Amino acid sequence: xxxxxxxxxxxxxxxxxxxxxxxxxxxxxxxxxxxxxxxxxxxxxxxxxxxxxxxxxxxxxxxxxxxxxxxxxxxxxxxxxxxxxxxxxxxxxxxxxxxxxxxxxxxxxxxxxxxxxxxxxxxxxxxxxxxxxxxxxxxxxxxxxxxxxxxxxxxxxxxxxxxxxxxxxxxxxxxxxxxxxxxxxxxxxxxxxxxxxxxxxxxxxxxxxxxxxxxxxxxxxxxxxxxxxxxxxxxxxxxxxxxxxxxxxxxxxxxxxxxxxxxxxxxxxxxxxxxxxxxxxxxxxxxxxxxxxxxxxxxxxxxxxxxxxxxxxxxxxxxxxxxxxxxxxxxxxxxxxxxxxxxxxxxxxxxxxxxxxxxxxxxxxxxxxxxxxxxxxxxxxxxxxxxxxxxxxxxxxxxxxxxxxxxxxxxxxxxxxxxxxxxx
Length: 424
Known about the structure:
With about 425 residues, this protein is mainly α. The protein is about 70% helix and about 0% strand. It is globular, with a radius of gyration of 22 Å. It starts with a helix and ends with a helix. Residues about 415-424 have low confidence and may be disordered. It comes from Granulicella mallensis (strain ATCC BAA-1857 / DSM 23137 / MP5ACTX8). Keywords: Membrane, Transmembrane, Transmembrane helix. It is found in: Membrane.
């Protein structure tokens, strides 16, 4: 009975995460509702599993503490009416409760080696299939998502997303999984070759989407992985060579596809400040700090940036500025110094445990999966300096799930079982 519950929970978490990107990033009310209801149902199923097992066994995750403190800030905003728009804060608060539920579920469900490895395979396979769809759609594009769904708000469509930057953000989180599975020496040669191919295809779509922030984030991920490998280069010549093969194959693949405008788009990285979009982002950030000065401690309220910002905008635009185009600055404005401090504590815990994964990733496949999750988190956070991927529910759900994967402690019962096998 317990194994059935475990399978249902693991499959349910993967289904919830997989649903978001396919539903255009889960940015519409109906898809957000499904996301929240599905996570709530999975929590109920987890509780049923614990009752069936004779009692509640909750595995601690150090992320719970900063999560609870951040939730306290949002509750103060709601109940003491310290928000510029109560309903917006309430709605965004429900989403963050959903993310908290995902962290809890991943911490309780993916604590064993087989389950964590299976989740790594899911991320690699899901990302590969989605990237294949994105490539096919790009080269047969008729102006509609899935060739049938028209958009009425402009945007730069790529894959199932209205905006190419959101797609790139998702791939930044997923591409480290096939890459680490390709590097892992414990896999068979055929499977490692397939995962390397999958990593090339997935990585190429970041460039095909022409998201500058995505390209920078992906480059940072590769740089971090290279540094990790060079730390133990005496034992890592094959891995370093494999990473070089990835880069060469990626360049060759893109040269063969020859997407229009890619070279010109990459050339903008040489002088990013001259780009009109970058200039607008800088102005928004300056205006955001003016907002912060008026409400420095608790901010304007979670989810209220688009409501408050028009009163502080310092430049003319016929476009609606709905986000700060910087996840860190937006968190600071909406939740103040107090909320930002708790968010920083969340990241501190994430990086502390992630750095620990750097020293043990060769030990087994689940450690490689943990390092892949950490690399994915690094990528989306780097991208968050110039965009707002964490305001997109589908991408935020993946980020928080990967954060839980990085910080989840291994189940002691499994350790005792393995210790017994060794002694036996």
